[in-house]
């Protein structure tokens, strides 16, 4: 049995559910073990699940017509993940969601989530707040890409997620920060040199 205390805290941070509704919510999720490099979502298939990470790391990405990978989001313990456009509208996904490590997730399927929202205002409010949080995150990411230099984006990411940055493959981090691997290496090497001097 997995420790779900962090999941409960995550929910309580968004809104306080009654014990009955917390029980309803928890019984709607399944625990799933995921192997490194396993794809949970891929283009052309409908994203069936909203995912909460109990343990591990994931990234979502797209591949352009030249074969270049563009990382959209990372997710580690206590984060949520899906191809939300596909999940919400139940249309074919455009993103890959891949495990970067052996992981354990909680997942809820779209139909079950809809039934919970339709039957219960408190749970509908929770899922609305989750959607607002995701929208705010994506808005911050867009503004960062439009207004910050590559080095500022890197520094900002490291400051916000110091423990996460060491777990991510360099190619995926560079892609997320909208820079080449070589430029990311240069930024990191410059920082090491500055610390030494």
From TrEMBL:
InterPro entries: cNMP-bd_dom_sf (IPR018490), RmlC-like_jellyroll (IPR014710). Gene3D superfamilies: Jelly Rolls. This is Uncharacterized protein.
């Amino acid at each position: 049995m997995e420790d779900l205390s962090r999941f409960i805290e995550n929910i309580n941070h968004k809104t306080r559910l009654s014990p009955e509704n917390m029980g309803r919510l928890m019984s709607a999720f399944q625990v799933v073990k995921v192997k490194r490099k396993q794809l949970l979502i891929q283009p052309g298939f409908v994203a069936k699940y909203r995912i909460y990470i109990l343990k591990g790391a994931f990234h979502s990405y797209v591949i352009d017509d030249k074969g270049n990978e563009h990382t959209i989001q990372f997710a580690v313990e206590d984060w949520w993940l899906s191809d939300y456009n596909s999940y919400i509208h139940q249309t074919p996904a455009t993103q890959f969601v891949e495990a970067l490590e052996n992981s354990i997730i909680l997942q809820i399927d779209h139909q079950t989530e809809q039934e919970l929202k339709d039957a219960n205002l408190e749970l509908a409010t929770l899922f609305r707040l989750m959607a607002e949080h995701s929208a705010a995150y994506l808005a911050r990411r867009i503004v960062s890409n439009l207004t910050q230099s590559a080095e500022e984006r890197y520094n900002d990411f490291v400051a916000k997620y110091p423990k996460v940055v060491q777990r991510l493959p360099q190619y995926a981090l560079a892609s997320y920060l909208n820079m080449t691997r070589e430029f990311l290496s240069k930024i990191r090497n410059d920082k090491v040199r500055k610390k030494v001097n």
